[in-house]
Amino acid sequence: MSLRESAAAADEGADPRTGSARDLLSQWNGCEDVWVFAYGSLIWRPDFAWQERRLATVRGYHRSLCLWSHDHRGSPDNPGLVFGLDRGGCCRGVAFRVAGRDVPDVFQALWHREMSGGAYKPRWLRCHTGQAPVRGLAFVPDRRCRHYAGALSDELLIRAVRQAVGRSGACLDYVRETHRALNEHGIVDWRLGALVDRLAQS
């Protein structure tokens, strides 16, 4: 099966959804600081104002290249893959604390970045840090959306990462940059490390 055929198969029966920043902000008291949990490119390119950064772990989800990218890291004819928090396991990432005064602007920016394609659903997750646990906003894949790839064979995954290029750059660079950022924070992701090792073998 080709990359295009595999990505197209994910479209069948899909019901893409977009979130509402206003709905999520209705759960905020309008003044307190808010935490955002980053597990992929938000770690190395948050592009929003933050006051504090902590290493954090969420349980019940794991970092996975489980979403097709037909624009930023791939194209309709040659889709790439991007990270999502898929079900099961746990994920070590970074929690950013956003000052209350910045929350409305930061949420709007995050919605424009993460929610425009309907691939993610916003969730408040318990983030375990070296200090007290915090409640953090995270973007998890919508498994019913057309972008959801699910579990792929190693061959298909590696081919997509190696070949795909989108308007934000090569999928390979995205994967390597995420791995580099995790290493810089002392975060070990053995699955991603093994993938990067295989990608280096050409």
Q: Please, could you describe this protein's structure?
A:
The protein is globular. A hairpin with a 2-residue loop joins β6 (165-166) and β7 (169-170). The chain starts with a helix and ends with a helix. It is α+β, with helices and mostly antiparallel strands and 202 residues long. α6 (171-184) crosses α7 (190-200). Helices cover 31% and strands 32% of the residues. It has a five-stranded mixed β-barrel. It has a two-stranded antiparallel sheet with strand order 6-7.
Tag the structure with descriptive keywords.
202 residues; alpha+beta; two-stranded antiparallel sheet; 7 strands; 32% strand; disordered N terminus
- Return residue spans where pLDDT drops below 50 for at least 5 consecutive residues: 1-19
Taking all residues together, what is the mean pLDDT? 88
**N-to-C terminal Cα separation, in Å?**
22 Å
Order of helices and strands: HHEHEEHEEHEEHH
Radius of gyration: 17 Å
Keywords: Lyase
Region (Disordered): 1-20
InterPro entries: ChaC, GGCT-like, GGCT-like_sf
Organism: Bordetella genomosp. 6
